[in-house]
Amino acid sequence: MMDASDILALCKRRGFIWPAFEIYGGVAGMYDYGPLGIAMKNNIIDIWRKAYTLGEGFIEIDGPTIGPEIVFKASGHVDAFSDSIVSCTKCKESFRADHLAKGLHSNPDSLSNEELSKLLRENGVRCPECGGDLTDVEDFNLMFKTTIGPGAGRVGYLRPETAQGIFVDYLHLYRFVREKLPFGVIQIGRGYRNEISPRQGIIRLREFNMMEAELFVDPENKSWPRFDKIKNEKMKLVPNNGDEIEITVGEAVERRMIGNATLAYFMYFTQEFLKTVGIDPNRLRFRQHLQTEMAHYASDCWDAEVLLSYGWTEVVGIADRGCWDLSRHIEYSNADLTAFKKYEEPVEIEREVIKPKYELLGPKFKGKSAKIGKALEEIDPSKIKNGNITIDVDGEKITVGSEFFEIVRIKEKVTGRKIVPHVIEPSHGLDRIFYACLEHAYTQKSDGYVVLRLKPAVAPIKVGVFPLMVKDGLDVRAAEIDERIRMSGIASYYDDSGSIGRRYARMDEIGTPWCITVDYETLKDGTVTIRDRDTTRQVRIHQERIIPTINSLLCGTPFSALEQ
RNA sequence: GCGGCUGUAGUCUAGUGGUUAGGACUGGAGCUUCCCAAGCUUCAAACCCGGGUUCGAAUCCCGGCAGCCGCACCA
């Protein structure tokens, strides 16, 4: 049977992916996309982008891959991505320092490395494996750190996900969509994680490609307009409290297996996308994260997993991030990252407010009077004690007597309120999807003959063009046809080397769905043969029909339709 | 990061201290060939990197890098 090394060997030999920096020995977790790989990756991106932007009305942005430290403090990555580690001086095992400190301190996470080291030492904590001495506590952060600007500069990090670039642009985005929920934003790009031990080809990379979508929804109404259209479709689910079941999208929401309709809708949407690019539906499922497994920001999370030779592998994570990200960025930036939710009817309310008498405050408090007045306006009248009120101005407590203000009743029309939208995030590991497409397309006959049954839409080359013989002008004719196909926008490849069978084999191995051969009949009547990769059947068509025929096949017309 | 195993053309492999480092497949050029990895001629192409031992290292030793497996970690 096929295993991952067959696929990786094919990828390397035929130019899908290559280990990066190979002449210098390579770097673990880093790969180059070769000519075929990049073409195929771009095809996958195209399909995904169109599904989200044209299909669901999402908007797309593209932000920097490096961000200042504050962004990742706010996002929680500086803390949550960083583990305090100790290792044993004897057996070299590594342990999470905060785990070892459990029970010794009410909140070990809050301690510095020095404090943790001291705590462990004073309590005589030794290696749980062999009882050896432990090293001092060290930080291990999975983010790549850098400096922005010259000299000491500003601390920056390479982004571990593209999502934060969307959250920090929320103000622009909310205005762009004309201040309506729900709305969705996508970003496609690189992310960086300094993995401890990258393995398994391109499954775990240190620099990787992501396609992320962030949906901003009303926390009180997490529905999606087109949910009803798909609620009777099925998905394979592995909930965190039970066994795998196949269930309709609607029922999964009704039974509260999936937290809300938007999450469920995009799980289904993801399933359909993965099928479109060639993932085998029988090797696809959604697995719910365990509570302990959830990221620091997530409240519910389902992974789309595909079965690879490595086992079940996450390719898409669909998380309900709640209000975590926007709330944190509000806290750290003081920006107003909210949505205004209008009431059905404006509400009129009456309330009492303090109205400062500025004409008296001025002479008494001089320069401070403006600030005192402002503070009085903001305070609730119930705080008045014995006619006096005490306020805090620049850290100074000032007591103001009742002669300096009056209490007035005002009527206010409130048309709505500000809410922090919740975020639902389908986050795609592009490299993993790319690899899964290859593995699920890979077939090998008993004699070792390899056919990559890639979906035509993702295949890097759509048509091979060959002359049957390299003489009598067949080659010239074939080269002309090849050029015309390419000029029409379809990737084709001219090949006149070796026997015709060898040329078909070359195309089969890289997943080219169709081959066109110019033979002696072409010279007589202008027809060529077109061959189907998966069936090896051939049909004669007139050369003038080549481009419309290929286009129609690319749109999904079955090859057998040409045989009538 | 720890432990085990491994590293020879693009790929698979022969080579146990002295070889022009051998073969097969692939690839290029040409011949042949009227549709599925055919044949012939010919060409190109390798000892992972760095130290050490030795008169001499692909071969023995050490370190690094990379791969595989296991452990640990995993948003």
Structure description:
- It is a single chain.
- With 564 residues, the chain is an alpha+beta fold.
- It has four domains: 4-70 and 147-325 and 423-429, BirA Bifunctional Protein, domain 2 (2-Layer Sandwich), CATH 3.30.930.10; 82-141, 2-Layer Sandwich (Herpes Virus-1), CATH 3.30.40; 344-419, Signal recognition particle alu RNA binding heterodimer, srp9/1, CATH 3.30.720; 461-563, Anticodon-binding domain (Rossmann fold), CATH 3.40.50.
- The protein has 19 helices and 28 strands.
- A hairpin with a 5-residue loop joins strand 22 (442-444) and strand 23.
- Helix 13 (358-365) crosses helix 14 (369-378).
- The radius of gyration is 31 Å and the shape is elongated.
Salient structural properties:
elongated, 19 helices, alpha+beta, RNA-binding, about 575 residues, 4 domains, about 30% strand, BirA Bifunctional Protein, domain 2, single chain
Mean pLDDT: 88
Give the CATH class of the largest domain: Alpha Beta
Oligomer state equals single chain
CATH superfamily of the largest domain: Bira Bifunctional Protein, Domain 2
In total, how many beta strands?
Answer: 28
For the record, give the distance between the C-alpha atoms at the N and C termini, rounded to a whole number.
37 Å
* CATH architecture name of the largest domain: 2-Layer Sandwich
Low-confidence stretches: none
Question: Any idea how many domains?
Answer: 4
Shape designation: elongated
Based on secondary structure, the structural category is: alpha+beta
Q: What is the percentage of strand-forming residues? A: 25-35%
The count of helical stretches stands at 19
**Percent of residues in helices:** 25-40%
